[in-house]
Amino acid sequence: LSGCVRIENNLDLRGIDSINYELRIDSKYLKKIPWQLNFESELKKFYTSKEIFTDDDMFLFRKKGLDIIETENQINKILKIASANISTNLKDIEIDKLEKNYILGSKYFYKINLDLLDLEKFEDLEIFINIINPSKVSTYRDYNNININKNKITWEILPGKINQIEFSFWSWNRSLIWTSMVLLFIIFAYYIRKRKYQLGSNLPQLPS
Predict the structure, then answer these.
(1) Is residue 170 over pLDDT 70?
(2) Listing from the earlier edge strand, what are the strands of the sheet with 138-139?
(3) DSSP state, 140?
């Protein structure tokens, strides 16, 4: 496996309870090597042709509209198939989610753990998890293998390590925010109109 593939897992959390998951594997060689072909063949046994796209050097799997438990289960199903193909025991990914609700929106806290200690013998294998969030994301400490650009996390997964990340973001109640802004505008306009009327009524009256 050394230096032959780039694996990208894309998690789109913008839907909160309708998560889109995508797995993409790009070969660094002109043609795919045997384990890639075996892996693709196994996945095709469980998923439809509408969910899998392939060409000579790329494999793409997409699953849409998942909740957090379904997302975790799908990734672990793929990890089990990969384990069988490379004869390595890959541990399940663990995704924990906590939601706190407020008047104008909800704050979400995520913790993801991926144990790849048994993958240590595969050097230079490129693995990434890209996470797209509905708003600007925050982490609770600095990570050397993680890059954050506004609402997107690019997380380089390190073989032979226990990979962990904790992050949070806001999901705003846009309809409530817009309604509040409209009401404030109406109140402000009413205040200005009333103030103008009061100022006008205090002007000296012309003699009749």
Answers:
(1) yes
(2) 94-101, 105-115, 162-172, 138-139
(3) S
For the segment 65-121, what is each residue's pLDDT rounded down to a tens digit? 999 999 999 999 999 998 888 888 889 999 999 999 988 789 999 999 999 988 876
pTM of the predicted model over 0.85: no
Angle at 67 between CA 63 and CA 69, to 5 degrees: 100
Are 128 and 146 within 8 A, CB to CB?
no
- Tokens standing for 118? 């048994």
Say how many C-beta atoms besides its own lie within 10 A of residue 185's C-beta: 10
State the alpha helices, DSSP H only, in the chain. Answer: 34-43, 68-86, 174-201
Q: Which residues contact 76 (CB under 8 A, 6 or more apart)?
A: 92, 93
Q: Give Cα 44 distance to the centre of its chain.
A: 25
